[in-house]
Amino acid sequence: MRFSCRRKDELFESLERLAGGLGMALVDLSVSRSRGSVQVRLTADRPGNTGIDDCSALHRAALPRLELAFPGAGLYVEVSSPGIDRTIKDGSEFAHYTGRGVRCFRTDISDWYEGVLLSSDEEKIVLKGKDGETTVPYEVIAKAKLCDVPGVS
């Protein structure tokens, strides 16, 4: 898995500030273009539960900004929450999920490892599993997703 610094993306930064003003964190931004139309997908999270009202509020707030970013394009905007079993696409996302259960496939042991995410930085994550704390570098994570971790607190 890689770690991308989202701070270098001007649109991501702008929408991240907008989401922050609504009490949410922007987790992911996906933009795809096809034949004069632009599809923008935002994934946002709020501490506790992220509901449809939260997603609707961010949609309404982001739409004018996106219309300015993509003038004249047919614009389709979708806003969603990460969900309970979100596949984590980039190492930068882990910062949003501290305290939640994470399951990752590790290439160094060719197996899944799960635990509660204690911390993350630009190089690694720290999980608390059944056997205690484990540091997992991004380079050995093939894939990861959110999950429930029974028996670990």
Quick summary:
The protein is α+β, with helices and mostly antiparallel strands and 153 residues long. 20% of the residues lie in helices and 41% in strands.
How would you portray this structure in words?
The protein has two domains: 6-80, GMP Synthetase, Chain A, domain 3; 87-146, SH3 type barrels (Roll). The strands form two sheets. A six-stranded antiparallel sheet has the order 4-9-5-6-7-8, with no helix packed on it. A three-stranded mixed sheet has the order 1-2-3, with helices on one face. Helix 1 packs antiparallel against helix 2 (52-69). The protein is 20% helix and 41% strand. It is α+β, with helices and mostly antiparallel strands and 153 residues long. Strand 1 and strand 2 (37-45) form a beta hairpin. The protein is elongated and about 55 Å long. It contains two helices and nine strands.
